[in-house]
Write a structure and sequence with these properties.
- This protein has one domain: 3-Layer(aba) Sandwich (Rossmann fold).
- Helices cover 34% and strands 28% of the residues.
- The protein is built from seven helices and ten strands.
- The two termini are 28 Å apart.
- The structure holds adenosine-5'-triphosphate and magnesium ion.
- Magnesium ion binds next to helix 1.
């Protein structure tokens, strides 16, 4: 369970990124966090992985307050939460396989586990046949699928996706959405941030609308009409 308890974030005096946000996300939920540019979507995600600290309020993951985690233990939090970004953030000098393996090495996994889990992850995203390609030898959609394989390989409880389809055409966008839905059906919580109404309305899941840092709407099977 993710719980934002009256959370506000001010980056400086005159910039309110999030204001009095209270929100629960249950395990295995698929939630779209939407809103126009500057609404606070990325800030919401950054607070969850403690890339930023709340100015007010508390954030809990499964009952533990995120702010209480010692700096030296942040890797444990970040291993529980996989992240996917608009610009993929793949290492250009590593193959698809090596990019995914790197996440496992960083998590201290054994070579045996890596040999077993990396191909399995790339299989889930449909890229087993291209696992030795470098990022420049992959299309945008394929690069994002490698990033998804990397995000899921350590079996996180939660996936945060920040505008993951922002650089993709409609066909690839739909592929990525279907893949995130499949991962969600396999038991992972997915929090999907986007400003794209068409994408959100394809998903037909819970939609939380942010406007100027405030939650202005929160509906199951919601639409993003504002
Ligand atoms: N590091 C920062 N320092 C100061 N202000 C920031 C910082 N990061 C974000 N902001 C401000 O906080 C507000 C929310 O930004 P945020 O990036 O969370 O919005 P967003 O909804 O993700 O927007 P977009 O759709 O453009 O990605 C904006 O007004 C932004 O200018
Ligand atoms: Mg953003």
């Amino acid at each position: 369970m993710i719980f934002f308890d009256n959370v506000s974030k001010f980056y400086n005096h005159n910039s309110v990124a999030l204001k009095d946000v209270t929100l629960k996300i249950r395990p295995k939920e698929f939630v779209a966090v939407v809103g126009s540019s500057g609404a606070g979507k990325t800030t919401f995600l950054k607070l969850l992985i403690r890339e930023e600290e709340p100015s007010r309020g508390k954030i809990f993951l499964d009952g533990s307050e995120i702010s209480d985690i010692a700096r030296g233990n942040l890797h444990v939090l970040r291993r529980r939460i996989g992240t996917i970004f608009q610009d993929y953030k793949l290492l250009p000098s590593k193959t698809a396989y090596e990019n995914v393996a790197f996440a496992m090495e960083a998590a201290g996994k054994s070579d045996e586990e890596i040999d077993e889990d990396v191909p399995q992850s790339l299989e889930i995203v449909g890229l087993r046949d291209k696992m030795h390609n470098f990022p420049h030898q992959l299309s945008g959609g394929e690069k994002q699928r490698v990033a998804i394989a990397r995000a899921i390989v350590n079996r996180p409880d939660v996936i945060l996706a920040d505008e993951p389809t922002g650089n993709l055409d409609p066909i690839n966008t739909w592929e990525i959405i279907k893949l995130l839905q499949k991962i969600n059906e396999l038991g992972t919580t997915v929090v999907f941030a986007s400003h794209d109404k068409e994408v959100i309305n394809m998903i037909n899941k819970r939609v939380v609308v942010l406007d100027k840092g405030m939650v202005v709407s929160d509906k199951e099977n919601g639409k993003y009409l504002v």
